[in-house]
Specification:
The complex is a heterodimer of chains A (425) and B (162). Chain A has 15 helices and 18 strands. Chain A has 425 residues and is α/β, with parallel strands linked by helices. In chain A, the strands form five sheets. Chain A has a five-stranded parallel β-sheet with strand order 4-3-2-5-6, with helices on one face. In chain A, strands 16-15-14-17-18 form a five-stranded parallel β-sheet, covered by helices on one side. Chain B has 162 residues and is an alpha/beta fold. Chain B has seven helices and seven strands. Chain B has helices spanning 17-20, 31-34, 70-77, 90-99, 107-112, 141-149, 152-157, and strands at residues 2-10, 54-58, 80-85, 102-105, 118-122, 126-129, 132-135. The longest helix of chain B is centred in the middle third of the chain and has 10 residues, at 90-99. Classes of the chains: A alpha/beta (425), B alpha/beta (162). At the A-B interface, helix 2, helix 3 and helix 5 of A face helix 3, helix 4, helix 6 and helix 7 of B.
């Protein structure tokens, strides 16, 4: 129940209402939403800085609430990319904002959670569409373009059409080889890449509570693939434990009112799920991995803001241990942050990868968006733990990207073809 | 906001921003330098058909995926003044509105328009194709205000404490 009104509200509505001056809000209303945090990277940042300059703004609304992250073209692939990094560094210095530079952070969404910037109930405007990842911790994170981010940097707020909410009710516990990746792929398979437009996906129920924070990150991350503004889990004890000693601000948990109006309800029994794969060239083109078994694989890529967590690396390492990457396949593992990289090294995971013939690289968005670090040639097939398989996303428009969980991706590297991980020798 | 122009169809549902502006060129900051890469992963020949008063006519769920503003920036630098579609992805829609590109959801106008049709977008609630008017749901007051201002740069500039 919100403090200004007695009508029932969804969790997203409550968060937006608490960050606006409106007396009440309903889906479809346009409201001005205050940001707790504004985030930009080496791609969205420089374009946003230009917009901000054109607005005539000479300072940010609050340097304590702005974070910049170098992650897309790192390490720089060419001189022009190096200039973006220079610009980010100089702008951060000039405006005295927190900057996670090269070698000092990692992939923005994993990093900002890890660094305690994200707390339940907060609003994060990010110059990256996967800002919806922060819903894993009960926050309203939403991706915006660079002019929006320029305006956020100047004013500390953005315009937002109040979204409806699609309630995804999860029951049961995931079976072996099934992860958060499969949960969101199942949702995408059901509602498609436009099914969440003008809505927030809210993940609730006993099944949601079984998912670890790393798995929730994977789920929330791909909400935008349904067209959604954000994907959000109400904060629970797991979030509280994750944030203990990490959160930079105090927070309170909230949830949707039982009698709130939802656009749609989707029920998923996690125990009935099997490992899934999104076939080229849409994230909603989802089939059980068994149906795609036998597809030859040229490259496997395990990393990105959805699935480059320690959980993913452990899953992959359990497959690679004592096995070799298939002769026709190359495999790349990209820990999402410097901290995950160190943990993985300390646990011996990186050694397991290298021994199996896997390339382990520094944290970067890299090949996920076709920037660098593992592009695909025409005719090649990749299995990746990333979030988009659009035509040309990772290089040639004539390559095919298959999205899957880390177990499936690692198994494909070992087998040289798509295979259910239970079936590898 | 009322914009007149000449229709050019971009056919296909779920056209993503990656194919409209491939990731390898995201290291470009200047819209004039973005323009030569517009539609590169999809149909580069479309570029040759853009005039200085083009209105793109598009299908469902146009502009999905990445928030990269490079797509509408490259469109604007190439002469695109408006977009009429069956439906849009959210970030693409707001990027266009923020940049002062007229954007309207109007499936009937998409059906009616041929390449070369004369199109008028009035964001207050109509799209006209070769003189035939189709009504659209009225835009929220804020979007009209944004359009009147010329875009979010101008809208924000008017609200800065200086």
């Amino acid at each position: 129940m919100c403090w200004r009104c007695t009508l029932p509200h969804t969790l997203a509505e409550k968060i937006l209402l608490a960050h606006s001056d409106a007396d009440d809000i309903r889906p479809g209303d346009v409201v001005t939403v205050r940001c707790d945090l504004v985030m930009a990277n080496d791609v969205s940042g420089p374009v946003a800085f230009r917009a901000m300059e054109r607005m005539g703004a000479t300072r940010v609304f609050d340097p304590q609430r702005v974070v910049l992250v170098a992650d897309h073209f790192v390490p720089a692939k060419d001189a022009r990319s190096a200039e973006l990094q220079q610009r980010l560094q100089r702008w951060a210095d000039e405006h005295e904002v927190v900057f996670y530079g090269q070698g000092r952070g990692g992939i923005e969404h994993t990093l900002l959670c890890e660094e305690g910037w994200i707390v339940p109930g907060s609003v994060i405007a990010g110059g990256d569409s996967h800002t919806c990842t922060y819903g894993a911790l009960g926050a309203f994170g939403t991706g915006l373009g660079s002019t929006d981010i320029g305006s956020c940097l100047a004013l500390g707020s953005f315009w937002q059409v109040v979204p409806e909410t699609i309630l995804v009710e999860l029951t049961g516990s995931p079976a072996e080889w099934v992860t958060g990746k499969d949960v969101i792929l199942a949702v995408l398979g059901e509602i498609g890449v436009g099914g969440g437009t003008n809505a927030v996906l809210e993940f609730v129920g006993p099944g949601a509570e079984t998912l670890s924070i790393d798995e929730r990150l994977a789920v929330a991350n791909m909400a935008v693939e349904a067209g959604s503004e954000s994907g959000i889990f109400p904060a629970d004890e797991k979030v509280a434990a994750y944030l203990d000693g990490r959160a930079r601000t105090t927070w309170t948990a909230d949830r949707s009112d039982a009698d709130a109006a939802f656009r749609q309800r989707i029920a998923i029994d996690l125990a009935a799920l099997e490992p899934l794969v999104a076939l080229p060239h849409l994230p909603g083109n989802v089939v059980p991995v068994a149906e795609a078994a036998g597809t030859p694989v040229d490259q496997v890529y395990i990393g990105n803001c959805a699935n480059g967590t320690l959980t993913d690396l452990r899953q992959a390492a359990s497959i690679f241990a004592g096995r070799r990457v298939h002769a026709r396949t190359r495999a790349i593992v990209v820990p999402a942050t410097q901290a995950i990289w160190r943990e993985a090294a300390a646990e011996g995971l990186l050694d397991t990868f290298v021994e199996a013939g896997v390339m382990v690289t520094t944290p970067t968005c890299g090949a996920c968006f076709g920037g660098s670090n593992g592009a695909l040639a025409a005719g090649e097939n990749a299995v990746t733990t990333t979030n988009r398989n659009f035509r040309g996303r990772m290089g040639s428009p004539d390559a095919g990207v298959h999205l899957a969980n880390a177990w499936v991706a690692a198994a494909a590297a070992v087998a040289g073809e798509l295979v259910h991980p239970k079936d590898i020798s | 906001m009322r914009i007149e122009g000449i229709a050019l169809h971009v056919h296909g549902d779920n056209i993503d921003t990656d194919v409209m502006y491939p990731g390898q060129y995201l290291n470009i900051e200047d819209p004039a330098l973005m323009a030569p890469h517009l539609f590169e992963g999809f149909d580069p020949t479309l570029r040759e058909r853009l005039g200085d008063d083009t209105i793109l006519v598009v299908d469902s769920n146009f502009g999905i995926g990445s928030s990269r503003e490079h797509v509408p920036l490259a469109m604007k630098a190439s002469g695109v003044r408006g977009v009429v579609g069956r439906s849009f992805a959210r970030i693409f829609f707001r990027n266009c509105a923020n940049l002062g590109i007229a954007i309207a959801r109007c499936p009937e106008a998409v059906d009616a328009a041929r390449d070369g049709s004369s199109v008028v977008i009035d964001t207050a609630g109509s799209v006209e194709v070769d003189g035939v008017e189709f009504r659209t749901p009225p835009a929220p007051a804020f979007l009209l205000e944004l359009g009147e201002a010329g875009g979010l740069v101008e809208w924000t500039a008017a609200r800065l404490d200086r």
